[in-house]
Amino acid sequence: MITVEEATEQVLSRIAVLEPERVGLLDALGRVLAEDVISDIDVAPFDNSAMDGYAVRAADVSGASEDRPAVLSVIEHIPAGVYPTEVVGPGQASRIMTGAPMPEGADSVVMVERTLGLQADGGVGGTVEILAPVSHGENVRYRAEEVRAGEAVMLAGEQVGPAGTGLAASVGHAELVVRRRPRVAIVSTGDELVDVTEKPGPGKIRNSNSYSLAAQVLDARAEPHMLGVARDTAEHTRALLSRAPEFDLMITTGGVSMGDFDVVKSVLEEIGELDFWRVAMRPGAPQTFGTIGGTPFFGLPGNPTSTMVGFEMFVRPAIRKMAGYTTLVRPRVIATLAHDTKKKPDRRYFLRGRLTRRADGGYSAAISGNQSSALLTAMYRGNCLISLPEGESHFAAGTEVMCIRLDMEEGTA
Ligand code: AMP
Ligand code: MG
């Protein structure tokens, strides 16, 4: 058996980043840029007002107050989207709206709340009282303040979020070049499996793993392809596994333990290459990894929780690497155990647990239900995996343990 770290390293060394593709702006959300995003314009494109108010010459209003307002004549009204034509001279002002271009001659904007319209209600041809001074440049957003035309606003390797989507739109990109989403084939194995739409007959159970895995693939921003259930024969298993090269990655579940009908490993050895098949962890020691026709292949164990934990530990980082992400591991936190717990010392345990905040701000971790790997409820109720190291067996309440946060995306803490 190899350690979790050795297995992770072997997996990642076999994974290559996928090629880029050009997609519509909204399709890029959550994905990783494969090219810098270059601006085609200056941002801001022209000097403009940050406020609704009056564009003035700061020198004209330097002594203004409520008691001694500066009175200016209003020469133009400048709404957003219209370019001004009048030059603001001494003793003059132009009424200006937020985002409208600054008129020549003016150097600052007095917000409307600090003014009082006199003649013509402060409109064109009338006068306005300025009740407070402004400093030179106040309430003006300058041309190219943020970006110059030709400069990169986002860099290759960065993830596109909602703000990045808006930023890309503002600099003229209706499409972005991002890493492709990995196409992931999912194969369940077992003669006992029936579909979710069926009531299981004697000796049968529903195929839940195809669904939990497809959900995990989606959650990892990749594309699941459910290929169905392989019967427990070498022929049928071979038929489905040999489709691996159609995809970027293949996952099977079940058929990798020591049972009489566990044929996945032997089929993999026959049509592909086996890298490892046992990892010192629980749940899910039989974590099989290899390649079929160059496509990375994961033979996850069949028990529903073992499958999900195997996906978390090995498949998810592989998918992320393929998709170009640089952070491959979930956030981890130190928590104190809420109760005593025991384990066998031979391997790493990943208990399904729930993290909560203690009054002092630290974290407490408790198991979130029955730890049988055949049951999914503790996984459902939990928000973390409590990692208990190999070599130890007794953990008293209050012991500090490392927890892997399943409720937070990689790179978010
Ligand atoms: P196996 O490794 O094939 O012996 O599977 C181990 C356990 O997981 C058995 O109890 C199987 O019935 C169960 N199992 C295997 N595949 C699935 C699946 N797709 N959905 C739910 N349970 C499964
Ligand atoms: Mg089976």
In brief:
With 413 residues, the chain is α/β, with parallel strands linked by helices.
| Unreliable runs | none
**Helical stretch tally:** 7
Q: What distance separates the N and C termini?
A: 32 Å
Average pLDDT confidence is 96
Radius of gyration: 32 Å
**How much β-strand is present in the residues?**
25-35%
Bound molecules: adenosine monophosphate, magnesium ion
- The tally of strands reads 28
User: Globular, elongated, flat, extended or rod-shaped: what is the shape?
Assistant: elongated
The chain-level structural class is alpha/beta
Q: Specify the biggest β-sheet.
A: 6 strands, mixed
Helical residue percent?
A: 10-25%
Strand adjacency order, main sheet: 7-4-6-5-9-8
Tell me what the structure shows.
By secondary structure, the chain is an alpha/beta fold. It contains 7 helices and 28 strands. It has a 6-stranded mixed beta sheet with strand order 7-4-6-5-9-8, with no helix packed on it. A 6-stranded mixed beta sheet has the order 16-13-17-21-20-18, with helices on both faces. Strands 22-25-24-26-28 form a 5-stranded mixed beta barrel. It is elongated, with a radius of gyration of 32 Å. The two termini are 32 Å apart. The structure holds adenosine monophosphate and magnesium ion (MG). The site of adenosine monophosphate has 20 residues, from strand 13 and helix 3.
